[in-house]
Amino acid sequence: QSIDLYCHELGIENIFVMVNEPKLATKISTSWFGHLSGKVRVVPRESISNIWRQDGWLNQQALKIMGSAKSQNSWSMILDAKTVLTRPMSRTKLLNAQGQSKLGWNGPVIDAFYPAQQIANEFLESNHNRCLMPGGVPHFFHNASVRELINFVESKTKQDFVTWFLGQGKLTEFVLYDFWMASDPVRSQWHTNTQESDVLNICNICHTQVHDFDKILETHNQSHHTLSVHRRAWANLSGAQKQVFRDRLMAKGITRAVNLP
After folding, report:
1. For 31-61, b where at least 16 C-beta lie within 10 A, e where not — what string?
2. Which of the four pLDDT bands, split at 50, 70 and 90, describes residue 195?
């Protein structure tokens, strides 16, 4: 519903719902996307590969990259299922006149993703340590560059991309993409730092931030483009906290928030 409300200005050509659970694809309705329903394609993971792991977190990393490779758009906005948009997303706000992303290089990779940094640098024979803004979802992939990445991996390893990626263990999709873009001066120009302070502001509450939920929610304001809560965080919120979250989303026009368990 939030995509239907807030993505009118992005020029969307297709929306891929990458399904990471066996047999779940048939339970997803394209009608959930409102006026964009005709753009939606539900993609069960079995249509891409048959070698998925028990670790769903690892599988979803590869699925995001494969979804980007399928896209007819120039750019893909990568969302998690829990990501809720709370403000209009604007193509002119995200891209400059040359079609480059205004989401440029951010600070260093956080400690939790240091293993991914090591794996990506070793594979790409590089020495990068910075990630792209905003450092979480929504993350933006340049689709042609993603297809180049997949071709590079498959040529170098003589394996299909999914098999190789799942074999890396702690590698993440965003670290691999970010370092791939940074490893070539031509590719890196697709992401350019901007002096604009309002390109993309996110408010995502992870499973380790339950104790800070009230404080974080207080900071969410009109400048934020997202508001989301990790499912493990949601399970540990009080009934009152869950209702505050529902009310906040409903005030943003997300009426289906009333059905959150």
Report:
1. eebeebeebbebbbbeebbeebeeeeebbbb
2. low
